[in-house]
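Take one protein record:
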Amino acid sequence: MTLLKSTIHILLLLLLALAGFALWLRHNESHLIYFPERTLEGHPLQAGLAYQDVWLHSDDGIKLHGWFMPSPQPSGLTLLLLHGNAGNISHRMDKYAALLGLGVNVFAFDYRGYGSSTGEPSEAGLYHDADAAYRYLTKQRGIAPQRLILYGESLGSAVAVDLASKQPSGGVILEEAFTSATDVAQQMYPFLPMRWLVRSKFDTLDKIAHINAPLLILHSQDDELFPLNYAQRLLAAARLPKQLVVLHGGHNDAFVVSATQYRAALQRFFAARITTKKS
């Protein structure tokens, strides 16, 4: 009897501990998803890249800051870059240089709460911000949707897919993408019912079938955060035309480690869009 009471007592303490941890996770969810930095550590001109400062507003009144960077060898395509969950637009100069060198103009902006943009990040907020960037490019700059490529990296892949599921574009590129926030959370905390605890969904897998544009998925088989299985599931759910290119390297540096393969995949994708545009 004493042993039974002790066992029950231990189980109750364990359940209380798990419940407390679950409440802590729920309360701190935003801080576990977003890692913004406010200070810009430079600007494109310091990296030898021409740019224009851009300020725009979301439909819920948030002031957003971005950079429009024209390619020195323009192909007629413009790329809307939706970055990952950490840092800000000043931390991605190597990627801008690589993309600009492939003949596409690049527009990169900071979500609410990142860099010089106002507000605080949230799932709905990031979707509003992407909508504002799309409006800016298509309305204010007059870029035709078929000349606009949506590029999402990591968390930005979910934002890109949400945007592409609602708006026309010339193509969608996803780098180190994930299926949903609940899948990632369940992977990180398998001992908790994360599918019921997580409020942010970022359900890319559910939305990707609604994209009516060519799709390129770039994913490293060495990604320490998001397994290749995520990319394979997204590919299976997407419409044609679609392609998965498997890279090497970590979550944040695969585009550098696999630079040759990365650039070749993008060159093919952009060339096909340019050919389609002319035909």
Observations:
- The chain has eleven helices and ten strands.
- The two ends are 82 Å apart (CA to CA).
- Residues 34-278 form a domain with the Rossmann fold fold (CATH 3.40.50.1820).
